[in-house]
Amino acid sequence: MIPVMEIEGASFSYGQKDIFKNLNLKVGKSQIFCLVGPNGCGKTTLLESILGIQKLKAGNIYVEGKNILSISHKNRAEKIAYIPQNIEKTFPYTVKDMVIMGRAHNIKLFQAPSKEDKLIAMDAMKRMGILNLAEKPFTQISGGEKRLVMIARALTQESKILVMDEPTAHLDFKNELMLLEIIVDIIKKEGITVIMATHFPNHAYYFENNGVKTKLALMKDGGFAKVGTPTELLNEKNIMRIYSINSQITTCKIDKETFIKQIIPISIIKEGLENSGGDIN
């Protein structure tokens, strides 16, 4: 079976500076792939390469068996929706108009959005809890609210693949949990594939705990240190090697059949990695 997305021997550099080298992965339908690693390890650059924004130095990226660079911009929008880490300044469109823009690939030049387009956008805003913002200028809402608008716009796009770069940035505790629940829901009910860069390894545990097929890549020093499931990779030793943090993995019993895992950070290791005890497991 052809994977929904495949990265084959991907390398990227800015001039003489290598950002990542020889990355390989396959992501299937109804699956989430989490990229976890410190600042500057190449997560955002890899996502931009997946989108065709950045051109690889070597290697290829395939979507449903087709090289991403051979797919037209319209067809890319039909296949991949993107939620960026940084939200650019824009004209003072209303929130409703910003969300409807997710239907742009489905609307011909000079054509107005259809009734169906508007209903899809309204449903996405309802799911994100921002219907009350519909008529407000996008430029006059908070950073967290802007993040919810961009997520609603991506949902409105109805693409098969959702690429998310730090999607919980600027969100409060409640809205972060709501977003994670929505991701679980669309993967299970709509068969969406999600590729997500995050600074929070517990996000990967959250998806696994909720029965979503979850793969995880630990990124460090320009490569994938390890690729596997959260249960396989998220342990105290690996968190030390990636983040220089002392941590503890805990298991909580919710009921007779439900157990959840999470990482509890304890302290930052200021003296470096001399005592970290070997390679990533």
Describe the protein in words:
- Helix 4 crosses helix 5.
- The protein has a domain of 68 residues.
- Helix content is 31%, strand content 30%.
- The protein is an alpha/beta fold and 281 residues long.
- Strand 11 and strand 12 form a beta hairpin.
- The chain contains nine helices and twelve strands.
Write the layout of secondary structure elements.
Elements: E1 5-14, E2 17-27, E3 31-36, H1 43-50, E4 58-63, E5 66-67, H2 73-79, E6 80-83, H3 95-100, H4 115-127, H5 143-157, E7 161-165, H6 173-190, E8 193-198, H7 201-209, E9 213-220, E10 223-228, H8 230-233, H9 236-243, E11 245-253, E12 259-268
Parallel strand pairs: 3-8, 3-9, 6-7, 7-8
Antiparallel strand pairs: 1-2, 1-4, 4-5, 9-10, 11-12
Helix pairs in contact: 4-5
What is the tally of helical segments?
9
What is the approximate shape? globular
The biggest beta sheet is recorded as: 6 strands, mixed
How large is the share of residues in beta strands?
25-35%
- Helix content percent band: 25-40%
Question: How would you sum up this structure in a few lines?
Answer:
The protein has 281 residues and is of the alpha/beta class. 31% of the residues lie in helices and 30% in strands.
What key attributes describe this structure?
281 residues, alpha/beta, 4-stranded antiparallel sheet, 31% helix
